[in-house]
Amino acid sequence: MIMNSLEQKRYRRRHRRVALIFSGIIAGMVGLSFAAVPLYRLFCAATGYGGTTQVAHAGPSEPGQRVLTVRFDANVAPGLPWQFTPETPSVSLRTGETKTVFYKVTNSANRPVSATAAYNVSPDQAGSYFDKLACFCFSEQTLQAHETAEWPVVFFLDPALEQDETMTGVGAITLSYTFFASKNAPAKSANNRTRPGT
Description:
alpha+beta; Ctag/Cox11 (Pfam 04442); five-stranded mixed beta sheet; 198 residues
C-alpha cells in the first residue's frame, strides 16, 4: 500500500508522539529513582516511620500523665576509632517533660576524625512521639586527635502518644545512635558542643 504525503506526515507525527511519550516515561522513572531516597527520608521524618525521631523547636506547654523510661544506646561503626557511651543508661520522664542527657565521646586516633550519627528509636511507633530540641546528630561532628567531648541531647515525649492505642503497652523506649566515619574531609569542630569544664 502506498501512502500519500498527508498520510506519511500523520504517520511520522504519531511515531514522534509515541517516542516522546516513552522518552518522558523513561526520564520520569530515572528521576524518581534518584528522588526515592530523599523522599523516603522525608516520609520517615514526617511520620516517624521506622523509628525516625521528630525535630521540635519548643516543648509542650503542659506535661502529660504517663511516665515512661527512655534507654540510651551508643554504637560506632567498624573502623571508626571513637569510644562513644551515654553518661546514663536510662531516665524516667513524664510525657511533655523536657530532658537533657549527655553522651561522652573520645577520638582514640592520632589525627582529627569526622563522623555522622544515624539514629532511631524502638519500638518503631514511638518515633512519631520522640521529639528532639537539640542533638549532635543534626550535623557532622569532628574530634581532634585524642579529644574527648560531651554532647547533649535535649528531647521530650509528645503527650499525644497517650491517645495512640499502639503505645498503650509500651513502658520503655530505646534511643539508639550509631556513628559512621564521614567520607568528607575533616570539618571544623565548631559544631561540637561540649559541656563547660570538659
